[in-house]
Amino acid sequence: MARTISSRQTTVATIAAWFLAFLMFFPILWIVILSFKTEGDAIGTPFHVLTSGWTTEAYSAVQERSDYPKHFMNSVIISLGSTFLGLLIAVPAAWAMAFVPGKRTKDVLMWMLSTKMLPPVGVLVPIYLIFRDWGLLDTLTGLTMVLMLINLPIIVWMLYTYFKEIPGEILEAARMDGASLKSEILYVLTPMAVPGIASTALLNIILAWNEAFWTLNLTAAKAAPLTAFIASYSSPEGLFYAKLSAASVMAIAPILVMGWFSQKQLVRGLTFGAVK
Amino acid sequence: MATQHSKTAARWMISPAVIMLLAWMIIPLSLTLYFSFLRYNLLMPGTNPFVGFENYEYFFTDPGFQAALINTILLVVGVLIITVVGGIAFAILLDQPIKGQGIVRILVIAPFFVMPTVSALVWKNMFMNPVSGIFGHMAKSIGLAPFDFLSQAPLASIIGIVSWQWLPFATLILLTAMQSLDQEQLEAAEMDGASWWSRFWYIMLPHLSRAITVVILIQTIFLLSIFAEILVTTNGGPGTASTNLTYLIYAQSLLQYDVGLGSAGGVVAIILANIVAIFLMRMIGKNLDA
Amino acid sequence: MKLNAGILTGATALTFLATAVCAETLTIATVNNGDMVRMQKLTNDFTSKNPGIDLEWVTLEENVLRQRVTTDIATKGGQYDVMTIGTYEVPIWAKQDWLIALNDMGKDYDADDIIPAIRDGLSVDGTLFAAPFYGESSMVMYRKDLMDDAGLEMPDAPSWEFIANAAREMTDKDAEVYGICLRGKAGWGENMALLTATANSFGARWFDMDWKPQFDTKPWKDTLDFYIDLMNDAGPPGAPSNGFNENLSLFQSGKCGMWIDATVAASFVTNPKDSKVADKVGFALAPDNGLGKRGNWLWAWSLAIPSGTEKAEAAKKFVAWATSKEYLALVAENEGWANVPPGTRTSLYENPEYAKVPFAKMTLESINSADPTKPTVDPVPYVGVQFVAIPEFQGLATAIGQQFSAALAGKVSSEQALATAQNLASREMKRGGYLK
Predict the structure, then answer these.
(1) What CATH homologous superfamily does C138-297+360-431 map to?
(2) Number of CB pairs < 8 Å for A and C?
(3) Which residues of A sit within 8 Å Cβ distance of C?
(4) Cβ <8 Å between B238 and C408
(5) In whole angstroms, what is the distance from residue A66 CA to residue A233 CA?
(6) What are the Cα distances from residue C309, in Å, to B25, B63, C100, C276?
(7) Domain range annotation of chain B
(8) Residue B146 and residue C411: Cβ atoms within 8 Å?
(9) Is residue A153, in this structure, part of any structural domain at all?
(10) Would an 8 Å CB–CB cutoff place A199 in contact with chain B?
(11) Are A17 and A126 in a shared domain?
(12) For the segment B50-78, what is each residue's pLDDT rounded down to a tens digit?
C-alpha cells in the first residue's frame, strides 16, 4: 500500500456510509416493522410503534383475503417466461450487431431503444382490442409476450454493449482454426457471454416483476400477478397501514432476496460492457 | 473482415427481434394514429366519425397541456440531477475501505427492487401523510406544524420518491466504474499536491463520464413514462401541479374514455419521445463510441 | 366452454349432469371496501348452495376497478361475469345495452322490497339493471363528547351555519382535534361528490336547462368559499389529499369532531375493534341552507351482469344470493347486525333487531331525503345528486375536482378555480355536442 489511509478517515467514511445506507433502507425496514403491528398501533408515533407489541395478525388477514400463492406463481411465471423468451430473441440479435456490424446497426439499436419511450397509456386501447380478439386477455401467455416486448430493447442493448467488449481476435483465432459458425458460438462465445447474459436476465426479471401498468390492465383473475395483489390493498376502508405493509412485504420480499443474492452478478454484467 | 456468409447469418439473427419490435410498435401505433382522427369515446359507441385534427386541437388547447410538458421535463431532469450527483457521492464514499461494505451495499441498492406502486404507497401513507406519517410525527415532536408534502410540494415530493427508487441504480453503476479507476494515477496526483477537488474534477469525473451516460440513458427511458407514482400519490394534482404527459394522456383516455383524444395525445407524446431519443442517441453515440 | 354450451342446448336432460361435471367459474370484479371483503369471506355459503359454480374474485381499489371494468365492458373484453358498479354507471351502461336486465330474479327475491329511491337509481324505464349490494347517502357523524365540551347540541337536521360554528368551536389544533373533516382529494367520486351535493344545498347546479355550465354563478362561489374557509379554520392538515378512506382513519383515531360523509361509514366508526371513538358517535342529517335541499347524496354499489357473458344464469344466481334478504341475515348471524350491508331493503329497516343499531334510522332518512330526479333548487336537465349522469361527467368532474383541490391547498384562488372549471366544462359540453 503506497497510500496510508488514516484510520480516522476510515472511521468517518464507515460511519457516513452506514448512516446513509440506513437512511436509504429505512422505508423498507419501516414497512417490515409496521407489518408486525396491529392497525391501531401502526398509525401511532414512531416511538409508539417501536414500543408496542408485535403480532402477525396483519399477515393472517392478508392470507385470509387473497390468494397469495396464485399471484406469486403468476409473477414468477411471467418474469421468468418473458426473460427466457426475450433472451432467446435478443441474444442472436445482439450477437450479430456486435460482431457483424453494418452501417445501420447503430440506427437499428437506437430505434429499438426509442420504442421503449412510448407512453403505454397511449396504446392501451389498441392493445386491449387486439388481445381481446386473440383471446389473450387475462392469460399468462399474453402477459409474458407483452413483458418480453417492452423489455426487449433494454435486453438487446445491454447484451450488445456486453458482447462488443469480447475481443474480436478470439473469434478470428477460432475461425483460423476452422471452427464453424455453430461451434464458434457454442464453444468460444458462450462461455465468455454467460456472465453478461446472466446479469441481463436478472435485470429483466426485476423489471418484469415490478411492471405495474400492463400487468394490471390486461389481467382479471387468472393471470393477475403481485401488482394486482397490491392494488387490492392500496386504500381500503378504515385503518390499513399494517395490512398494506404486510402485503407490500409479501410482494417485494421475493425479488428483494433474489436481488441481494445476485447483486454481484447483476452489477458485473450491467457495467461490464458499458463502463470500463 | 466479415464475410458475405456471416453477414447473411447476422441478418437472420437480428430479424426476429426487429420484426417483433416492429410489429409491437407499428400495429398499435397505426391504430393509435387512426383513432386520433376519429371521434371515438368508449362510453358512446356509435359511428366514430372522422373528425380530422379536432382531437389534436383539443389536446393542444387542454389547460393542462403546458403544465404537463413542463412537469415532464422537471421530473426527468430533477430525478437525473439528484440520482447522478447522489450516485457519484455514494460511489466515492462506498469506494473507501469501509467496514461492512457488503452489507452497506445491500442496504443501498434495496430500493431498486421495490415495485413503484409499493414505494409510492409507502411514501404517501407512512411518510408524507401529515397526520399519521413519520415526517408529520417528527415535525410535531419538535413543535413544528407538519408539512403537507403532497398538496404543498407535489412535484418535488414525487421527484423525491422516484429518486429514492433510482439512486441505487445510479450508485451501482457508478460504483463499479469507480472501482476500475486506476488508484496509482490518483496517488500520483495526490503526491503532486493536487487538491481533492482537482483530483475529482480531472481524474474521477472524466473516468466516470461513460457510466454517467449510461445512467442518464437508461433512466430517461423509464422516467419519461413515470405513471404509477403519480397515480398513487397525487392523481396529478392539486390542479395540474404534478401532471406529466403520460398522466395527462391517461386522464383523457382512461378517465374520460375518450380514445380519440387520448390517441392524439399518444401520438404527440411519441413524437416528443423520439425528439428526446434523437438527442440522447447523439450524446450516447459520442460517448460510447470513444 | 363451447362444448358445455352445446350440451346444455342440445339435451335438457343432460343439463344437470353437464353442469355438475364442468363447474362454471364466475369472475367477479369488486371494490376493496369492507362490505365486499366480507362477502368474499362468505363465499362458502354460496358455493355450498350452488354446487357447480365456482367464484373467482378480483378485488381492486375503487378507481382501478372502475377503469378496468369500464374498459372491459366498452370493448366487450368479456373478462368479468359480475361487475360491481355504482348508480352513475348503471343508467349510462344500460342505455348502451351493455347490461342484462334483472327482472326475473326468482320468486323469493322480492325486488319490491328494495328501497324505492335506490331502485329508481338503478332502473331505466322501470327495468332493473343492477342489484344494490349496499346503498348510501351522506350524513353528519359527530363526536358527542366534543359537542358537549363545546356546550352545543346537535339538532337532527342542522344548518350549514350551525355546522360551521360548531366546527370552529370544537377545533383544538394543539390536541390534534379538528372540528370538521371533509373530502379534499380530487376525483369525481371524492371531493366532487361532497362539493356537488353541498352546492345543491346552496342553490347551485352544474348546468342550466340549456346545458350551459353554471360555475360562474354566485351559489358556486359561495359554496367554494364556505368550504375553503371552513376547512382552513377547522380542518385537518393535508385536507387536499384526504378522501373517504383518509378521513375515516382520522375520525376513527379521534381526530375529527365532525365528518360529513357516506352513511355506510357509520358502521366503521361505531365498531369498537377499529374505532377509538366507537361509543361517542352521534348522527344527524346532512346540513341545509334553508333552500329546501340538503347536502346529501345518493349512491349504491351494485352488482350488474355484462350482456356479453356466457354464464348469465350462474351470474344471476350469484347476484340474487349477494343481494337477497337471506344474505343480510347471514351477515347478521356471522358478524352482527351493525355489519349488515345497509341501505338496500325496506324489510331490513322494519326489522326490530336492526332498529337497535344506532345509525339505522338516520341512514334510512338520509337515503329517503335524496332525490336524484330533482337534485337541485333550480331545474336541471340531468339526473343524479352528486353526479350528472352523462358519460362526459367523470373525466370532467375529476379535472374540476383537481381545481377545487388546488384551491383548498391555497395554490389558486377560488375565483381562478371556478373560472377554470367553467372553461373546462364549456369545452367539454361543446365537444360533446350539448352546446352549439
Answers:
(1) Periplasmic binding protein-like II (3.40.190.10)
(2) 90
(3) 39-40, 43, 64-66, 124-125, 128-129, 131-132, 137-138, 216-217, 220-222, 224, 228, 231-240
(4) yes
(5) 10
(6) 32, 40, 9, 45
(7) 29-113+156-289
(8) no
(9) yes
(10) no
(11) no
(12) 888 988 998 898 888 999 999 999 999 99
